Amino acid sequence: MSARSIDLFLDMMAAERGAARNTLDAYRRDLEDAAQRLGGHGVDLEKAQTGDVEALLSDLAADGLSPATAARRLSALKRYYRFLLKEGLRADDPAKTLSGPKKPRPLPKVLSESEVEALFDAADRMEGAEGLRLRALLELLYAGGLRVSELVTLPLSGFARSERCLIVTGKGGKDRLIPLTDAALDAVDAYKAVRAEHLPAPKAPAYGVAARYLFPSRTARGGHLTRERFAQRLKDLTLAAGLDPQRVSPHVMRHAFATHLLANGADLRSVQTLLGHADVSTTEIYTHVLEARLKALVHDAHPLSHDETGSEG
């Protein structure tokens, strides 16, 4: 009986949704496989209940299907049962409350410490006011773990050399205090000596707005360096450093800040505070670094890793 309803469903997908042939073939394979699996338990696909569909999904997981494939199978079932409900072929939708497996969260792109150093070396080779500005931007981005939107909109008043810190307004308008390294402080000092070269003319209408920012712009409507312009300059710097520009972006530098701190002993809560994450679960994506460090610690420091007999001497 389910074969007939599958054909009706696919006809609807083709006529009303304009589904492509490949899509229709995929739906047919998924639904026929589901019908066969349920049939093995004496259940008809068209009449299956929520528990039957849950058991089917468990079987798929046991077969080692990837989360993406299992999610696609569930999507096909959900569309199929919605169709049956709409057409009056059954009175309920057994898949309505079911959710697919969560896809694993991708790990952030990570630069090595030597690659970050290569970017700084390339910035040092740049001359003039542009080179000094780029060095300051890079130092603050890496030393403070700022979001690019936070970086380019830093107010001039937010930078306090005497307090050796930066006041950053992040998401939700929440302020956080970022302690800065000596290198970052020196880079900003050197840049501030040429900052005026990036300002509009003092009598220009845009001068008043631009003067508020640590990184002003002579041409941008908002008065500050734009995210797009900084991303382009970072790409140029990446090429000059001999790195792949597909691997480097302002957000990748923020990832580097977090992963390098953790790799060198910082605790997760401190990194959460510095990144401005409201929930530590957001920061936990970087724990793959901690895991690698702990494995290395056990391998290098645990006595049993060096003494096959397990004795102390």
Describe it.
The chain folds into 2 domains: 2-86, DNA polymerase, domain 1; 113-297, Orthogonal Bundle (hpI Integrase, Chain A), CATH 1.10.443.10. The chain is 54% helix and 4% strand. The protein is built from 14 helices and 3 strands. A 3-stranded antiparallel β-sheet has the order 1-2-3, with no helix packed on it. α6 packs antiparallel against α8 (182-192). It starts with a helix and ends in a 12-residue tail after the last helix. The relative contact order is 0.08. Mean pLDDT is 84; it is low at 308-313.
State the main characteristics.
313 residues; mainly alpha; 54% helix
Short recap of the structure:
The protein is mainly alpha-helical. The chain contains 14 helices and three strands. The protein is 54% helix and 4% strand.
Report the count of strand segments. 3
Determine the CATH topology of the largest domain. hpI Integrase, Chain A
Percent of residues in beta strands: under 5%
Q: What's the tally of helices? A: 14
Q: Tell me the domain tally.
A: 2
Summarize the SSE layout with pairings.
Elements: H1 2-15, H2 21-39, H3 50-62, H4 67-86, H5 113-124, H6 128-144, H7 148-152, E1 159-160, E2 165-169, E3 175-179, H8 182-192, H9 207-210, H10 227-240, H11 250-263, H12 268-275, H13 280-283, H14 287-301
Antiparallel strand pairs: 1-2, 2-3
Helix pairs in contact: 1-2, 2-4, 6-8, 6-11, 11-14
